[in-house]
């Protein structure tokens, strides 16, 4: 299963510039405590972790829990150092894993 992911970040930055990165993924984040239409609990389906690497180095990570709302949105900052790829990975229940990539071009 893939989910729709939205990532907002600049495509270009100057060396040393701080850039804001915003990442959202469409996911129900079902806690497992809510009853369904049949009165039985809806099975838990939660994204457990998020990581972002920049040119192969981890720059941000988060653990997510059932109390986090659907469609988790994360915003963080990193310093532009080299032209490279940022890789965003979400992992969750039922083998859920999704990776998205964006390139940041750094100018001197």
UniProtKB/TrEMBL annotation:
Family annotation (Pfam families): SoxZ (PF08770)
NCBIfam families recorded: SoxZ_true
Segments forming domain Sulphur oxidation protein SoxZ: 10-101
Name of protein: Thiosulfate oxidation carrier complex protein SoxZ
Any coiled-coil regions, as ranges: none
InterPro entries: Ig-like_fold (IPR013783), Ig_E-set (IPR014756), SoxZ (IPR030995), SoxZ_dom (IPR014880)
Xref: Gene3D superfamilies: Immunoglobulins
Lineage of the species this protein comes from: Bacteria, Pseudomonadati, Pseudomonadota, Betaproteobacteria, Burkholderiales
UniProt superkingdom: Bacteria
Residues of the signal peptide: none
């Amino acid at each position: 299963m893939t989910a729709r992911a939205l990532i907002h970040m600049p495509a270009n930055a100057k060396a040393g510039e701080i850039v804001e990165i915003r990442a959202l993924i469409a996911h129900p984040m079902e806690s497992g405590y809510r009853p369904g239409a049949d009165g039985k609990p809806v099975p838990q389906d939660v994204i457990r972790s998020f990581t972002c690497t920049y040119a192969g180095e981890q720059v941000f990570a988060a653990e997510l829990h059932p109390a986090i709302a659907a469609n988790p949105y994360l915003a963080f900052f990193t310093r532009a150092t080299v032209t490279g790829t940022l890789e965003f990975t979400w992992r969750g229940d039922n083998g859920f894993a999704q990776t998205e990539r964006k390139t940041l071009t750094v100018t001197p």
